[in-house]
Amino acid sequence: MKKPDYIWQRFTSKQKMSRFIVYFLFVLALVLSMRSVEIIPEFFFDAPEQMGDLFSRMWPIDFEFYPISVHDAMIETLNIATLGTLITLIFAIPLAFMNASNIVASPISHWVARFFLVSSRSVNSLVWALLFVAIFGPGVIAGILAIAFRSIGFVGKLLGEALEEVNMGSVEAVRATGAPWGAVMLKAYWPQVMPAFFSIILFRWDINVRESAVLGLVGAGGIGVVLNNSMNLFEWQQVSMSLLAIFVVVILAEILVVNIRKRLI
Question: Which of 32, 79, 156, 234 measures 20 to 30 Å from 13, CA to CA?
């Protein structure tokens, strides 16, 4: 029987070389990272025992602590997330318009919008909180502004992309009737962008609920303040109550967002 003149291979030589380079760089980065982290073996292998000891101190959960401090702090956390998300719209919507090439044709406008959108996303919410705590002092205002400024880049970028993906046929049809700019936005752009708009806002609010829960660790209000105080006083049963409250609120917020999206979209 004659042997075939070719040998089937899944990858070409170039693809094999590319895969080898990627794997090699990954392993090299992992080794260099482990060397630079300088993990202390004694602490690393002792971690399970310390974790078990910590969980034993957190049990039983101090449910009586909830009405004393946790409830008001959780309401404050939700207010921070909600107000921060609403304030985000004041800045994110104009930046989204400026970043959408089918609405504003100026390259300068695009660069300005992208600068603010990237700047917002590149700074973590805790860093924003530290900055605003230094300006306004500890409290809810710093937390609201930290959430708002962190969310501008997320909402503005996704909303701008949704504006660029609209069907321009309906837009041109409305423009052909001689409708002013506001009518074009309301009758042509808004019906197409509305599902994406509400999805973005609801998704961002869900994220902000989670992020606002830890802003209190740097003095920006919310449940994080209660959690930080309990940890500093080694009141681990109160810490477990705060963590349980955060977990429940996050789950309820997720369920709420999913149900609202189903009704609106």
Answer: 32
